[in-house]
Amino acid sequence: QHEIDHLDGVLAVDRAIGTGDIIYMTEYRKHKDLYDGQCDYSIVPTTGT
């Protein structure tokens, strides 16, 4: 479904149920350990920084 959404121009924020489902990067960075603990993967850079 995710890739089909890309082809249809649908973004993740379009699928969010409510505003509480969207976490801004500043909030994520403040509470990174909390959010990372809620999923079985982690967000890592894909480019050299």
Written description of the protein model:
The longest helix has 7 residues, at 2-8. The radius of gyration is 13 Å and the shape is extended. It has helices spanning 2-8, 12-15, 25-30, 32-36. 45% of the residues lie in helices and 0% in strands. The mean pLDDT is 83. With 49 residues, the chain is mostly helical.
Key traits:
single chain, 49 residues, mainly alpha
Condensed summary:
The protein is mainly alpha-helical and 49 residues long. It contains four helices and no strands. The longest helix is centred in the first third of the chain and has 7 residues, at 2-8.
Question: How are the secondary structure elements laid out?
Answer:
Layout lengths: L1 H7 L3 H4 L9 H6 L1 H5 L13
Q: Tell me, briefly, the overall form.
A: extended
Q: Strand content of the residues, in percent?
A: under 5%
* Number of beta-strand segments: 0
Largest sheet: none
